[in-house]
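Duplicate of #3305? Posting structure anyway:
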């Protein structure tokens, strides 16, 4: 008998079919957001976006940024005019929010909002296209700030002392990044996409909950310092011995066997290893 011709049985069959299909769609949808390794895939909205064009003559070199006047109040900086303000320090103000007005400082090169009570950051932060250094240590952030991912010249990030649980795979778009510090957070893993940062020279991930370091770390060919202290690591990938640029490896406070440490010391005589 054709169950669709039986109103009662057909209704039950049709409902059951819908439930099964809905379940499969949910599973398929979830799998589409993950890659073959089970990690979340890169957000296409970010990777498909183009970094904003900038006037390279407005990008300060290291010496000019060092000499730039330091402003310590947002209102005073705004009143001074965007052309004059390159360095803003709002350190230790007890701030629970950062005003979206910060976007008016379009040529800001260095922003320090450390030691505050910030749980989130304004969307307008993504308008600071000339930002080179972003420092937000010792706040209450639980997410890596997506607002900074597409900033075209941002080279140094310090997010130490927050409650960040993951580094998004979209970090791979930050090809200009040279220093990334996320000490004292709640990371339990790092994405393999991080290994695509060809210019990264300092990576500091101390005092998190990292249990493994994924294979592929040797792709960080410019890396000079790797700090993995006080995590929950039981081994270090042996490919790390091929990282010729690595000058300092910090692995103290983990559970790495002595024989593995001895092997690293013999395999990496030119690297200072702290254990």
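Output from current build:
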């Amino acid at each position: 008998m054709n169950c669709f011709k039986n109103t009662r049985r057909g209704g039950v069959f049709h409902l059951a079919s819908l439930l099964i299909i809905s379940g499969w769609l949910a599973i398929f949808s979830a799998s589409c957001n993950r890659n073959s390794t089970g990690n979340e895939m890169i957000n296409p909205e970010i990777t498909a976006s183009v970094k904003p064009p900038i006037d390279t003559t407005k990008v300060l070199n290291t010496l000019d940024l060092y000499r730039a006047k330091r402003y310590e109040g947002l209102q005073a900086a705004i009143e001074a005019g965007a052309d004059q303000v390159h360095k803003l320090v709002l350190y230790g103000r007890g701030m629970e929010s950062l005003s979206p007005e910060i976007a008016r400082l379009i040529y800001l090169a260095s922003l320090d909002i450390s030691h505050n009570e910030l749980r989130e950051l304004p969307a307008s932060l993504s308008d600071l296209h000339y930002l080179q250094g972003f420092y937000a240590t010792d706040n209450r952030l639980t997410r890596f700030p997506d607002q900074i991912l597409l900033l075209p010249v941002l080279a140094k990030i310090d997010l130490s002392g927050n409650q960040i649980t993951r580094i998004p795979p979209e970090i791979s778009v930050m090809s200009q990044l040279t220093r990334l510090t996320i000490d004292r957070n709640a990371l339990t893993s790092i994405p393999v996409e991080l290994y695509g940062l060809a210019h990264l020279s300092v990576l500091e991930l101390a005092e998190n909950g990292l249990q493994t370091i994924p294979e592929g770390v040797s792709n960080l060919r410019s890396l000079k310092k790797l700090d993995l202290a006080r995590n929950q690591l039981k081994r270090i990938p042996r490919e790390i011995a091929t990282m010729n640029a690595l000058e300092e490896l910090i692995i103290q406070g983990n559970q790495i066997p002595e024989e593995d440490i001895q092997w690293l010391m013999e395999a990496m005589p030119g690297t200072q290893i702290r254990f």
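Confirmed duplicate; merging threads. Confidence is low (pLDDT under 50) at residues 1-42. Residues 7-32 form the longest helix (26 residues).
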